[in-house]
UniProtKB/TrEMBL annotation:
Keywords, ordered alphabetically: Isomerase, Metal-binding, Zinc
Required cofactor(s): Zn(2+)
Cofactor note: Binds 1 zinc ion per subunit.
InterPro entries named in the record: Carb_Metab_Reg_Kinase/Isom (IPR051804), Man6P_isomerase_Firm_short (IPR014628), RmlC-like_jellyroll (IPR014710), RmlC_Cupin_sf (IPR011051)
Active site, UniProt feature: 178
Record flagged with keyword Cell cycle: no
Binding site for Zn(2+): 82, 100, 158
Annotated GO biological process: carbohydrate metabolic process
Protein name as it appears in the record: Mannose-6-phosphate isomerase
Superkingdom field: Bacteria
Signal peptide region: none
Organism per entry: Neoroseomonas lacus
A single GO molecular function term of this UniProt record: mannose-6-phosphate isomerase activity
Length: 298
């Protein structure tokens, strides 16, 4: 199932996407911050939207298994946090919390992110520093390099800096609580953020891409992110329980002999036919638990 990206304007985005997305910008006038690769409103090659196609096969279904995006940053994003499974279940509305992973496609020499805290903090400290703009001083800073992958569990306070192109993969829960936003005119959700934030100290979990044929980059409760590059190609076979999303990491990747352009994606259904993937490196996002995707290397 071939999917076209949906562009989203963001105040921290870019006008030059550096060749990562080739879709038309008709109707988009401001800086682009995100290209949604698996949103329900993305168009599919066979016509209509991804959401409509999924609902046709499974009427009770409202979303794809996972959300994949490209992020383009020219300014820092807000300091924010996403709900945990516990908070999601308590809400009675959300299906789950929101874990995410960032695979770094491009990074300027001074690009950085902040994930979690140096040492334990209190809710009072977090509220006060969010109000006076010093919250980043509590957080663990990481200088980012191309090829790294960073895992951000639900409940982890985090922020993304300028100068980055990221592949972001996450649970399909579009809920974000902002703590600090550099004075920009967007609402904050301090109380909600404090109710879900993990106030303990944390460490940054980093995976680094190598020249290995296959490498697991991130493992979350509901997804596995893998980087694959095989000179002879490989076959992706679903086992009937997992769905898979294939995203190119460079020009030259093919799926069943067709070029897969940067900024696009292919969804392989759980009951779908095997697909052959070759050429340049790709990211394969597997729904479900555990690093045991169904691949046959050529």
């Amino acid at each position: 199932m071939w999917i076209a990206p949906r562009l989203a304007e963001r105040i921290w985005g870019r006008r030059d996407l550096g060749g990562w997305v080739s879709v038309s910008r008709i109707g988009v006038h401001g800086p682009i911050g995100e290209a949604w690769l698996t949103d329900v409103n993305c168009e599919v090659e066979t016509g209509g939207t991804l959401g409509a196609l999924l609902a046709r096969d499974q009427p009770a279904r409202t979303a794809p298994p996972l959300l994949a995006k490209l992020l383009f940053t020219s300014a820092p994003l807000s300091v924010q946090v996403h709900p945990t499974d516990v908070a999601a279940h308590a809400s009675g509305v959300l299906a789950s919390g929101k874990d995410e992973a960032w695979h770094v496609l491009e990074a300027t020499s001074d690009a950085q992110v902040w994930i979690g805290f140096h040492q334990p903090v209190t809710a009072r400290m977090l509220r006060a520093t969010s109000a006076d703009g010093t919250v980043l001083s509590l957080m663990r800073r990481h200088a980012v390099r191309t090829g790294e992958t960073l895992f951000v569990p639900a409940g982890t306070v985090h922020a993304i800096g300028a100068g980055l192109v990221l592949l972001e993969v996450q649970d399909p829960i579009d809920v974000t609580y902002r703590l600090f936003d550099y004075g920009r005119p967007r609402p904050l959700q301090i109380d909600e953020a404090l109710s879900v934030a993990d106030l303990r100290s944390s460490r940054v979990v980093i995976g680094t891409a190598t020249m290995a044929t296959r490498q697991i980059l991130a493992v979350a409760p509901r997804f596995v992110l893998e980087r694959i590059e095989s000179e002879n190609g490989f076959t992706l076979r679903s086992d009937g329980s997992r769905e898979h999303i294939v995203v190119p990491l460079a020009d030259g990747a093919t799926v069943d002999g067709r070029a897969l352009a940067r900024g696009s994606a292919v969804l392989v259904p759980a009951m779908g036919d095997p697909v052959g993937i070759a050429g340049a490196a790709v990211a394969v996002l597997h729904s479900g638990l555990g690093p045991s995707p169904c691949l046959a290397m050529s």
